[in-house]
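Backbone shape codes:
===
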Amino acid sequence: PPTSIRLRALTRRWSVFSRTAPNSSKPPLNLENIMDLHQLVVSKDARAAGKHLAELDLPAGALVALVSRPEGYAVPRGMTVLEPNDTLLVFVRSDDLAMTREIIEGKYEV
């Protein structure tokens, strides 16, 4: 089953970069509870299998951060071809998870 990891530790690190300038009236950026990190496996029957990442039309709230294959890991680019059984680490907003999962795994959860 796919694993979900909360981004609390990461957002703490990012908070260093999200501090507002001393004279700024904008509140600091808070990334906590915005996105989760999911591990999704490309199914042989999924729309993603055999396609370039750029062709997938993933939701705007989804970002593929890493592709894992038996030969190693790769940071994906638009021209990366996804193969069945590739394991993807995907940052995704909760409201975009079902569509992202359907495209990559071929499953749709309500």
In short: The longest helix spans residues 97-105. Helices lie at 8-14, 97-105.
